[in-house]
TrEMBL record, chain A:
Descriptive protein name: Ubiquitin-like-conjugating enzyme ATG3
Gene Ontology BP term (one): autophagosome assembly
InterPro entries: Atg3/Atg10
Protein transport among keywords: yes
Biased composition (Basic and acidic residues): 129-140
Gene: LOC115627694
Domain of life per record: Eukaryota
Length: 330, 318
């Protein structure tokens, strides 16, 4: 229901965005919003300090006139995401530790085993592998089946891809082509082999290899809310795009479908993408500015995106973007 | 005998869904019934390379290519046909030849020297079934069929070179937009290492200096074999500088790992003994059609129903 509301709201906001004039004067200090120029300056700062980020120009037909042609939005690609958010939330066992004096216990969330490893982490590994195994047997990822994509759709007439094959073209002998097997596929083959031989006996050598999902993160400028906006596109281990449901597994469960919504990207063609809704960004930013100023410090507008990324991390806690920059609160 | 020839890892196409979305949009709103070939651009990365991929996405249709970070531009053409019959009946061999001849024409003219990314060449033959949201496509990576290269020794890692520190430093200093194809002059006796552009090093090549050349290229292959695009590089070098025929040539496939180190870049020492006259274009044969997932010579198909069919989208949106 929430997503329907979001869709309706999103469409209305598109109209509103069209009518909203471009912010000209800096209101960063008073309200926590950004002008396009400030967004570009903060973006330049981010690109300079975090080399994985870069500017992108997006689709030519969707160029926004209030931003430079080659600096339409920011992008970082192939950010690893090692585990699912659900696992982080449900796997941990909490132990209430009673203090001897009796005034208020505390909660220990990580119990160390004798050998120093945490039980929790091992469980996470097991879960991830099981899930991978399941994913690998879905017909979609089974590369040996041609046209596997349309098998599940009964209303489609089956398409015989063999009919397209050309016979004469292989007659040209070319000794310079290497026969290659991708490492990922080689692993898959060996894993299937161990599954068959060992009858499910765990401990095959390839099992220690953890396959990870990756994410592309985009930061666009939202003209209506006058703040940056984070977009995420996920890919599975085979670089196939994730479905919406799969993507929600990586979003903090408190935020899925509420703060994180599916909307159309302002600079890209194609289906709706997941984004962190920007309606609260300016408020949070304003609070941070106030906190810093109460401590006697001053927050430069060029740090905006670095701080922004720190607070959107709470929404998507599993994506590990490399973050070394710190800023002083006082 | 076959053990000593250099083999190349064939390019594998990787198509982002946004590529099809943009194609559908252009076909409906702009191209309509026109099926004229159109220039597109792709990209490949030599940073933590997986397989040997050539990627295309929505940006392929942009007027100016802006490859993603750590990626390099590839030059391509799309032949989008109007009907499945046209797609099927098109003479694949002559399309490949036409593409290959265009590549050779670029090699003979000075265009490649000015813009080496012309060597990373691809084309797509496609048919968009807009009603069923099915996309039929077949990638080709044209390359003249020349005599195999003799491999002089096993591939060597850059970090095993004696002057590795100097070489690594020089490689790191190459600006990213010039990393796709360049030449490294490394003279161990003079302890001199410097990077040169193709045009600077190859126009009026100095044969005594050429002995110390490493012909470098951004290598998107994860295998022991160099990527497919090195094949065009070799053909171009021998065409541009026929004096290199019969000499040992050192090729350096630049590969970055996670930490942005060049340690695992590979060096192949090869010799081409048999001349191949690529100037008589009509006699040259070409290779490069990408096999499908069954390793047969055929196109691939992808169904975009889940993200394009309005009915499906409505289903998923609630």
């Amino acid at each position: 229901m929430q997503s329907v509301l979001n869709t309706v709201k999103g469409t209305a906001l598109n109209v509103a965005e069209y009518l909203t004039p471009v912010l000209k004067e800096s209101k960063f200090r008073e309200t926590g919003v950004l002008t396009p120029e400030e967004y570009v300056a903060a973006g330049d700062h981010l690109v300079h300090h975090c080399p994985t980020w870069q500017w992108a120009s997006g689709d030519d037909t969707k160029t926004k006139p209030y931003l430079p042609k080659d600096k339409q939005f920011l992008i970082t690609r192939n950010v690893p995401c090692y585990r699912r958010c659900k696992q982080m939330e449900y796997v941990g066992e909490e132990t209430l530790v009673e203090e001897e004096s009796g005034d208020g216990g505390w909660v220990e969330t990580h119990q160390l085993n004798d050998d120093g490893t945490t039980e929790v982490e091992e469980k996470i590994c097991e879960l991830t592998l099981d899930e991978n195994r399941d994913e690998m047997h879905t017909p979609d990822s089974n590369k040996s089946a041609p046209g596997a994509e349309d098998e599940e759709e009964d209303d489609d007439e089956a398409i015989d891809m063999d009919a397209f094959e050309e016979s004469g073209m292989l007659e040209l002998v070319d000794p310079s082509v290497a026969t290659t097997t991708r490492k990922a596929e080689a692993d898959l083959i060996s894993r299937q082999a161990t599954d068959e031989d060992g009858g499910g006996a765990a401990g095959g050598s390839s099992d220690s290899v953890l396959r990870t999902r990756t994410y592309d993160l985009h930061i666009t400028y939202d003209k209506y809310y006058q703040t940056p906006r984070l977009w995420v596109v996920g890919y599975d281990e085979q670089r196939k795009p994730l479905t919406v449901e799969q993507m929600y597994e990586d979003v903090s469960q408190d935020h899925a479908k509420k703060t994180v919504t599916m909307e159309s990207h302002p600079h890209l063609p194609g289906p709706n993408m997941a984004s962190v809704h920007p309606c609260r960004h300016a408020d949070i930013m304003k609070k941070i500015i106030q906190t810093v100023e109460e401590g006697g410090g001053e927050l430069g507008v060029h740090l905006y995106l670095i701080i922004f990324l720190k607070f959107v991390q709470t929404v998507i806690p599993t994506i590990e973007y490399d973050f070394t920059q710190n800023f002083n609160m006082s | 005998m076959t053990e000593n020839i250099l083999q190349f890892a064939a390019f594998e196409s990787f198509v982002c869904p946004t590529f099809w979305h943009k194609l559908a949009e252009l076909k409906i709103e702009h191209d309509r019934l026109s099926d004229a070939p159109k220039p597109i651009s792709g990209h490949y990365t030599n940073h933590k390379a997986a397989g040997c991929l050539l990627e295309v996405d929505y940006s392929a249709y942009n007027s100016s290519a802006q490859p993603p970070k750590f990626s390099h531009n590839a030059v391509g053409t799309i032949y989008n046909k109007n009907t499945i019959e046209e797609f099927k009946e098109l003479d694949k061999t002559s399309l490949l030849s036409a593409e290959g001849q265009a590549l050779l024409a670029d090699m003979t003219s000075a265009r490649v020297l000015d813009n080496p990314s012309l060597l990373a060449r691809f084309f797509v033959l496609s048919f968009a079934d807009l009603k069923c949201h099915s996309y039929y496509y077949w990638f080709g990576f044209p390359c003249p069929l020349t005599h195999p290269l003799q491999l002089q020794s096993e591939a060597v890692r850059v970090k095993d070179l004696q002057n590795f520190a100097a070489v690594a430093e020089a490689l790191r200093a190459v600006p990213s937009e010039a990393q796709n194809f360049f030449i490294l002059y490394a003279n161990e006796e003079l302890e001199s290492v410097e990077v040169r552009s193709l045009s600077a090093a190859l126009t009026n090549i100095d044969n005594t200096e050429a002995e110390h050349y490493y012909y470098c290229f951004a290598d998107p292959s994860e295998y022991e074999h160099p990527a497919w695009l090195m094949r065009n590089y070799v053909a171009f070098l021998l065409m541009q500088c026929p004096t290199l025929l019969g000499k040992t040539l050192k090729f350096l496939g630049l590969r970055y790992d996670q930490q942005m180190n060049v340690d695992n870049s590979l060096i192949w020492k090869v010799v081409q003994n048999d001349a191949c006259d690529l100037t008589r274009i009509e006699n040259v044969k070409f290779v490069g059609w990408e096999p499908n997932r069954n390793c047969k010579m055929g196109p691939r198909m992808v169904s975009m129903r889940d993200s394009m069919d309005p009915a499906k989208l409505a289903e998923n949106s609630v």
